[in-house]
Amino acid sequence: RQLPAMNKIVKGGIASAAVGLAFLATTRQAKAKENKSQPKSAIVIGGGIIGISTAFQLARRGVQVTVVESNSSISSVASYKNGAILCQSMAASWASATVIAKNPGELKTMKVGLNAWLDPNFYKWAAWFWWNSLVPGLASYNHESQRQLAWYSLRCMEEEMAEMGDEVEMNKTAVETIKLFHDQGEMDDFLASDQANFWKEKGYEFSPLSVKECLELEPTLASPSEASGGLDNHDLVGGVRCSVDSSGDIYTYTCNLAKVAEKLGVTILCDKQVRKLEAMEGAVTGVTLDSGEQLTADVFVIAAGVASPQLGRQVGVNLPVYPLKGHMATVRPREGRAPLTRNIYSPKHGLVSPLSPDSLRIAGMVEAVGFDYTVEPDKGQMVMEKMEGLFEAGYMDMDRAEYHSCLRPVCGDDVAIIGQTHLDNLYVNTGHGSKGWTFSWGSAMLLAQIIMGEQPGIESQRF
Asked: What is the distance between the alpha carbons of residues 44 and 66, in angstroms, rounded to a whole number?
């Protein structure tokens, strides 16, 4: 049989060729390999939420782990500030023609910049994306993969919090999510969807809300009769309550988890750029840093977000992952205004999540602009101004907002790549897109199970 992660890697190349793109897949068909012995040491490349979570899970199993992070500190790029939401209820693949056609959000109007147009890797990724969007059955399969990983990750998160408590504090704030609708037919379809049925079976039934009920739960929302901001709520028809979700501070959590991991013996090396992965006779033999230092271990994990494909290509592993840029604003309600207690998602306005004691994190936009890490306050302001009309007039203190931009590592099918490559001791945990934090618990647990030869807690072939 083929290794699950390699199955996706190879299919990514095939899909690109199928639509007429010049993409030579340099990976070979992998054969199943039995773990002859459990590894005693590991190098994890990447010090964001996925890399730190992976290191933690391996360390819990007695592996001596070294994390290599290119920046001066961990959790400093996409894991520094994100949308704040833990969005299990929104677990669905972006690679879906139906989602793109019916959802008026940012994906439909995604900007493609010059850097992407000039990048051959963008075309390869786009081919894989549209292959998964248009081939019958693939989008449904990918939606289900997202939901299963969301459910597994939720269970892993709850077990970790129950066991470790304040050691993994994350400033968990939102009590649930309200998804607002501006079309009654779309609301009815959502309540009857596979997504709603999945979470109902897991004990988290989606509840319909009238406009009045939405305003009673969150009095700071603008009523349909109130003119507020450029995009008001005049056509609001109701909402859906999703009790499975929450919100928190990804940076706080990642740093706290890193401290726990270090207590377990994990070594974190920051400001260390991997110059080259070295491979010989079907296995990685080590990594060479920019300083010339060489590191060796029994197993290696690529968990470097948008930098993962470049690392993989060094040893013949093609990862169909491309960066999609998003923008965030952090703002506070004006003095005397009631705090928001739930995540609010409106396809018309965007996503806003509360962070204790009095902050709001607003996230939006999807851009393919290559590897442009620039923080763009003007676009963060646009995201915030789009959200303004969701709330009653003057609710947000927009003059004191802070902004951040980051690159999301999106796989061509918008399902993470988790597992072994064609190289005996090289593993991957990347491609989570906009849901990296939500999926981090389950992804790290699954990869640790695969590496250690344990029974996976989820259908690993999906990833």
From this structure: 6
Q: What is the pLDDT of residues 47-85, one digit of tens each?
A: 999 999 999 999 999 999 999 999 999 999 999 999 999
Q: What are phi and psi of 462, to 5 degrees?
A: -75, -15
Nearest of 41, 154, 161 to residue 435 by alpha carbon: 154
Whether the per-residue pLDDT at 204 is higher than 60: the answer is yes
The answer to which of 12-26, 174-188, 300-314 has the lowest mean pLDDT is 12-26
**Within 10 Å of residue 435's Cβ, how many Cβ atoms?**
27
**Of 326, 352, 283, 388, residue with least CA distance to 84:** 352
Torsion of CA 204, 206, 210, 213, to 10 degrees: 20
d(CA 392, CA 271): 45
Closest to 364 measured CA to CA, from 342, 380, 388 = 380
Q: How many Å apart are CA 176 and CA 190, to the nearest integer?
A: 17
How many residues are recorded in the chain? Answer: 463
* 309, HSE (Cβ side, Cα atoms, 13 Å): 24
* 159 backbone dihedrals φ, ψ, rounded to 5°: -65, -40
Q: Are 315 and 399 in contact (CB under 8 A)?
A: no
Sheet holding 283-289, edge to edge: 274-280, 283-289, 294-295
Are 250 and 75 spatial neighbours (Cβ–Cβ below 8 Å)?
A: yes
Q: What's the rounded Cα separation, in Å, for the pair 109 and 300?
A: 38
Between 10 and 374, the higher pLDDT residue: 374
